[in-house]
Amino acid sequence: MNDEPILQVKNLSKTYIRGKIPVHALSDVSFNVNKGEFLSIIGPSGSGKSTFLSMIGLLDKPTKGSIFIEGAEVTKASESEAPRIRREKIGFVFQHFNLIPTLSALENVDIAMRFARVAKNKRKERAIELLTQMGLSDRMKHKPSELSGGEQQRVAIARSMANYPVIILADEPTGEVDTKTRNMIVDLLKGLSEKGQTILVVTHDMAVAERTSRMITMRDGKIESDRRL
Ligand SMILES: Nc1ncnc2c1ncn2[C@@H]1O[C@H](COP(=O)(O)OP(=O)(O)OP(=O)(O)O)[C@@H](O)[C@H]1O
Ligand SMILES: [Mg+2]
Prior knowledge:
Blueprint: E1 7-18, E2 21-33, E3 38-42, H1 49-56, E4 64-69, E5 72-73, H2 82-89, E6 90-93, H3 105-115, H4 120-133, H5 149-161, E7 167-171, H6 179-194, E8 198-202, H7 206-209, E9 214-219, E10 222-228
Parallel strand pairs: 3-8, 3-9, 6-7, 7-8
Antiparallel strand pairs: 1-2, 1-4, 4-5, 9-10
Helix pairs in contact: 3-4, 3-5, 4-5, 5-6
This protein binds adenosine-5'-triphosphate and magnesium ion.
């Protein structure tokens, strides 16, 4: 057994320069995540939650510090290597779903694998499997505009899973859905984590955070508390 944490964050800092004023969005943050953890990140607006996710997801570079995914330092990746690592290791779920409006549910999941150069028949099989797992077997041909918010978010979760990511990063995945749909999305994420999927979810909703297995509270770019539930 490999007991090494799946994600290691070491002394991570991010300073944005706004005009001439530095904004310390993250200040010397360190923490580890084990495989299969379902972790929530809460905290006031501006506390650095999204900045944190975008560093882990290799969407932006930290000012200082390092991130290791499965023991490999991803913060060392060059601009040309980062997209591949992101595609292979990270699944993203966003508040606004970010689906391609002209493509069907099936095609939206398919395209994530096309970028990863998966063979066509394999892609179709995987997309059908994932959408079925999300309870969308009768919605595969629908375009995003023909789906409810909850259905769109389930397509987005299916898409995030397509390339067997090491970590799923979700920023306010239930920010735009009703309570019933929120509960369904949390059930789905919880189910995935119980099967070993590592998930980090940023949320303002305590009802979501309380259903995760570990809650991190951020304040002023630092981890204020970290507790197992
Ligand atoms: N690209 C940027 N340029 C300058 N400052 C930024 C940038 N992105 C974020 N910030 C600042 O960094 C701080 C942390 O922002 P971040 O988006 O991480 O907060 P958050 O916790 O996700 O907030 P919210 O709950 O509102 O989404 C804020 O003060 C924000 O204004
Ligand atoms: Mg945010």
